Amino acid sequence: MEKAENPFADPGLPPHEHRIQDIDERAAKRSERTVALLFVVSMLATVGFIAAYVAIPVDKVVYIWPIGLTSALNFSLGLTLGVALFCIGAGAVHWARTLMSDEEVADERHPIEAEPEVKTKVLADFADGAKESGFGRRKLIRNTMFGALALVPLSGVVLLRDLGPLPENKLRTTGWKRGIRLVNQSTNLPLRPEDIAVGSLTFAKPEGLEEDDHDFNNKIAKDALMLVRLQPQDIKDKRELEWSHEGIVAFSKICTHVGCPVSLYEQQTHHVLCPCHQSTFDLADGARVIFGPAGHALPQLNITVKDGFLEAASGFEEPVGPSFWERG
Known about the structure:
By secondary structure, the protein is an alpha+beta fold. The chain has eight helices and twelve strands. It has helices at 20-23, 25-55, 72-98, 116-133, 139-151, 153-159, 216-223, 238-242, and strands at residues 61-64, 68-71, 182-184, 201-206, 225-229, 248-252, 264-266, 271-273, 280-282, 288-291, 303-306, 309-312. Its main location: membrane.
């Protein structure tokens, strides 16, 4: 009786068929140029990402079919970054499919711990694969790939800009300058000296700054002011006394730790407390820090009186709020 044939016999690997690029150098050159083109497009898309991030306003809205109204900045960033990443992937895939070796080789499984001769063989196979890929010989592909891979991370580096303001004068300037009246932030009326009682805490803003202004929040974050009326004999700091008016002193309301609004005043000690991290300032001694993580005193605004109303005699002499890298 004849033994039945195994229906699941290993058919083995099919015969290897050469690609057109394996036998025609002109076809190989076309594939090389295609891969290089994809890498170059990736580089241009990365440059476009950076240009869009810098040039397109964050509040600009455009109509994109079929999405509808959308942020021009978000759409541009997504499109350019997507093209940059896609072209790197497409270039790598096309390179592998057309120019790298595609011959399948069957090898028997071996123990996890390789023998020395196996390790030698693996290293030799790796060297052969690198040679067959044309990585060393096809410099156009290699150089454009390196260029694309080097530029793509710049997309993330550019986004670091949002970690803080650019090194300009934004943090050094506020809405306060000579002749600007102090306006009560609660009543929106200009302040007179008699409006501020001894021991009271009043919050003020520059005249002309309105809550319905489109950039009100950005401006009040630097312009917010607090006024306290002390007995002149209780003021210890000489400059603070010179910059006050009949015991009325004006300091920035923005804590010099992380920018929280200082708002808790203790009348008997003349101390003011930031509710976020408990930084405490002595308003009778130049608003110096007496407790907490704040790095420096609250900036004082030089005030005077004109036509019966309190106004700034000058702007702040130092940046308000937390310390920053360019603060001298």
